């Protein structure tokens, strides 16, 4: 007995009633196609119409080859019609976006007519999440392995006798400390991002003087700015008040300003500004660096996404800062965006609702 017939039996109805047939088809979340012996679509449900008839084409009475251009699917339907045996097939549709389906095709009899029914289980989202999971594990393994390799190498060098050389042993210990701190920062950012994404982080909005907070962040980053030869400009009006969680806003500013310093050019400038537009507080952090290529802008807020991995590794950072900014902005009901002009610089803009 097919899945369709079992569904009908569960409802306590006769499956050969056209009305009941359509009701059962429409109550099924998965795409369903019923094909006759001429390999034409005898019936279908609404989800199938959306997926396979997106251009407005009516599916009923259409040849299967007009609806789905996949030889394995055609062969599976033939097998169900002629040999009366079920098949499991995988189908990929590449249109505006890639869609993946696990397809179960089985024989079925309605009113004495041999037909074949296909259930299309959409696996697109599951596969996309699996891809994200694998990419995350690959990235985190790489990011942890790099400092860990350095730590192990220098520990081994110290054990082999370098510890007796005071000058070199102190330098080696410094390298070990820096790499350990890098690993610690990475783990802390991963935990922070996980908490935010899981909805376990709450915010408490209160009025915050943005100019004062920006000045505090600048003070904390002065040494780094001097090291990179970058000027810090606080263009936020003294009277600017924003309704935010102060701790989370400071976290966003530190990430954006720190990046603006590191990816700037020597003698460059980082400017933090604010404007109020139609119920939105817009906070911008601009740099005078080399800018970002257009093809990278759409992915800049992804976890571990880096435009130049070699340079990012050289100047430090976990690759999670912008992802954290994005999620914290959304936690406030706002959004963050980026605009960049090559050879002129980049501006990150946080837009937060006033209420």
How would you describe this structure to a colleague?
This protein has 355 residues and is an alpha+beta fold. 47% of the residues lie in helices and 24% in strands. The chain has three domains: 3-122, PAS domain (Beta-Lactamase); 125-201, Signal transduction histidine kinase, dimerisation/phosphotransfer (DHp) domain (Helix Hairpins); 202-355, Histidine kinase-like ATPase, C-terminal domain (Heat Shock Protein 90). Strand 1 and strand 2 form a beta hairpin. It is elongated and about 90 Å long.
Offer a concise description of the structure.
By secondary structure, the chain is α+β, with helices and mostly antiparallel strands. It has helices at residues 3-11, 18-26, 46-52, 64-67, 71-82, 124-159, 166-197, 210-220, 222-228, 246-262, 294-297, 309-315, 321-331, and strands spanning 31-35, 41-44, 87-94, 98-110, 113-122, 206-209, 231-234, 241-244, 269-277, 280-287, 335-341, 345-353. The chain folds into three domains: 3-122, Beta-Lactamase (2-Layer Sandwich), CATH 3.30.450; 125-201, Helix Hairpins, CATH 1.10.287.130; 202-355, Histidine kinase-like ATPase, C-terminal domain (Heat Shock Protein 90, 2-Layer Sandwich).
């Amino acid at each position: 007995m097919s899945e369709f017939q079992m569904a009908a039996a569960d409802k306590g109805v006769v499956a050969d009633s056209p009305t009941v047939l359509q009701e059962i088809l429409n109550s099924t979340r998965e795409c369903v196609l019923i094909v006759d012996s001429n390999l034409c679509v005898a019936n279908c449900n609404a989800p199938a119409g959306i997926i396979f008839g997106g251009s407005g084409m009516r599916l009923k009475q259409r040849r299967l080859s007009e609806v789905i251009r996949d030889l394995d699917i055609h062969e599976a339907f033939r097998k169900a019609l002629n040999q009366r045996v079920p098949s499991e097939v995988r189908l990929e549709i590449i249109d505006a976006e890639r869609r993946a389906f696990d397809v179960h095709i089985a024989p079925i009899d309605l009113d004495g007519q041999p037909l074949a029914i296909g259930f299309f289980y959409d696996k697109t989202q599951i596969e996309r999440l699996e891809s994200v999971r694998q990419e995350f594990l690959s990235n985190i393994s790489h990011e942890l392995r790099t400092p860990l390799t350095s730590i192990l190498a220098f520990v081994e060098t110290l054990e082999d006798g370098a510890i007796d050389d005071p000058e070199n042993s102190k330098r080696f210990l410094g390298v070990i400390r820096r790499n350990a701190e890098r690993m610690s920062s990475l783990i802390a950012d991963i935990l922070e991002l996980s908490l935010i994404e899981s909805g376990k982080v709450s915010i408490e909005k209160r009025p915050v003087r943005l100019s004062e907070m920006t000045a505090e962040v600048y003070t904390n980053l002065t040494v780094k700015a001097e090291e990179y030869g970058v000027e810090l400009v606080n263009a936020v009006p003294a009277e600017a008040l924003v309704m935010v969680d102060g701790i989370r806003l400071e976290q966003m500013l530190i990430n954006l300003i720190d990046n603006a310093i590191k990816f700037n050019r020597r003698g460059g400038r980082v400017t933090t500004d604010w404007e109020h537009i139609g119920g939105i507080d817009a906070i911008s952090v601009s740099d005078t660096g080399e800018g970002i290529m257009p093809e990278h802008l759409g992915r800049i807020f992804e976890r571990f996404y880096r435009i130049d991995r070699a340079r990012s590794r050289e100047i430090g950072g976990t690759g999670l800062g912008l992802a954290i900014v994005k999620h914290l902005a959304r936690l406030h009901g706002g959004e963050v965006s980026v605009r960049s002009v090559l050879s002129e610089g980049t501006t990150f803009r946080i837009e937060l609702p006033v209420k």
